[in-house]
Sequence to fold (163 residues):
Amino acid sequence: MAVLEVLVYPNTALRQEAICVSEFDDKLKKLINDMRETMYAANGVGLAAPQVGIPQKLVVIDWNGNRYVLVNPRIVEQEGEERREEGCLSFPGIYEEVARPEKIRVLYQDENGDEHDETIEGFLARVFAHEIDHLECKLMIDHLSPLKRTFLRKKMERKAKSA
Ligand code: NI
Fold:
């Protein structure tokens, strides 16, 4: 297993459109293991493949022992709204209040290609929605007010230049 480099905003690869996974082979399983290792090393609860520079519809999640691999996930229903602070491994040190659905119904495949249809609630629904956003080139910052978005974008750009 290997710890991969997590891309940090404004890296443009984070805006690259992810394509569907079609091969459920050893290469996919290795990538899943590496992504888990990377997520644990960074103390994250979720990681999407585009964050490690791989534009594929793949997410790993581990929140309070709830472990998921989401391949080609799709939110098909959502209910309610909750505002709560969240972070992202691609925005180190930044925590912002973001509105997310309280409850979602999600269709996805696992690492073997088996299909799942699940309803998820609460903080876990937030983690799912956040990670699935990454597969659609959408970042945490896009949910903020234009003013806050501009402020954070400039801050992150300055940080990237000085790195
Ligand atoms: Ni994120």
About this structure: The longest strand covers residues 66-79. Residues 88-90, 130, 134 surround nickel (II) ion (CB under 6 Å).
